[in-house]
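Please check this today:
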Amino acid sequence: MQTKQRQPFVRGDFEAGEFRRRCQQVMDGIGEQAIAVIPGAAASGAFDVFRQTNEFYYLCGIEVPQAYLVLDGRNRSSCLYLPAANERLERSEGAVVNASDVELVVNVTGLDQLKEHQALAGDLRAANEIWVPFSPGERRQMCRDVIAQGVKMRDDDPWDNWKSREERFLDLLRGASSPDQIRDLCPLLDRQREVKSPREVELMREAGRLTAVAVLDSMRATSEGIYEFQLAALAEQRFLTEGAFGGAYRAIVACGENIWNAHYFRNNAQLQAGQLVLMDYAPDFSYYTSDIGRMWPVNGSYDDLQRELYGYMVDYHKVLIDHIRPGVTAEQVMQEAADKMRPVVESTGWSRSSFRDAARATLEFQGHLSHGVGMSVHDVGDYQQTELQEGVVFALDPQMWVPADEIYVRVEDTVAVTSEGVEVLTEAAPLDLSDVEAVIGTEPLLG
């Protein structure tokens, strides 16, 4: 009887040469006397689909629990450490990449060596300077700032003696190798991840398209009486049917007063005529995501006040897009856009003085080029401190608050800086108010 050939699954989103370049860049950063050690994600112990940490996947693309990667600046070599073969596991779940798959791993990752992870301790003993991520790794629906909030909540709990995997690994590392110096790899790796390669932008272009189409699906399905969670489920269906893991973060689908809470997530309210819907949801597609914000009327037509406020923000959003280009700072983009919009604000016959005050305040607020987007929705890096360059991807998210009326208005797209300007990755979602009105309720969710 012919034995079935093992074919362990590897995602194959990047060529080996790209992983190799990333690892070499890390070795350039740590220097010739140091090594970097990156632990992958641990097995969760749940019936979930394993998702590697962003940091680990970025460097080698391997999706196996309990994996470790060593980048040695001393001899410019790289080694992956994986668990040994587990025949019982493979009988149950299918072939899994393990320490015996040397040829496969080298071909897919561009790394030099593959060993069982028990060999790691011995290979670290001669290292005097070790770089390792201090921050917890980003896994499914995680980003660095949200992880930090969770860590603080646990630290503030006197009954919780929790330590992250990274903290435990640091403790073990100090005991196993006694290096003279242990340094945080996160700042170096974060700067590297900030500028996306052409292939990364290509993946993010698809993530942006999925994001926009999911929002368009929700606009078409909107009608009085359905629930916020039904629009979220419709978007999730779009993500899953087109090959994503699902949502990259919890869905924000807010109607009426729920919009005031910018990161509202309960999604349990029923849509009513006269309300607006705010939607912000994007997929985890091949370890990359997007970000979006659209607001539309439940009954299909913006009323005069909604048109006044949201229409202004859409116009401001377009002006910001027009000024994004390489070689300028985020601050400069906002200043140029504000200079163009200021006469518009002053010449508009606002319905309420609070609206005029809010519109003026939007031109002073410095957070409209909001945050990086990439492997996480609030991606690492700090593009706002330098001139924009090709390959930087961020959320363009102009926001308005009218505190006296508890009104919050925003419109958001994910944009990539190009050599000549900017590409809007989520442009497939209608933006102009008339275009939005034309699709609302055209494919009702409930017949």
In short: Residues 198-439 form a domain with the Creatine Amidinohydrolase fold (CATH 3.90.230.10).
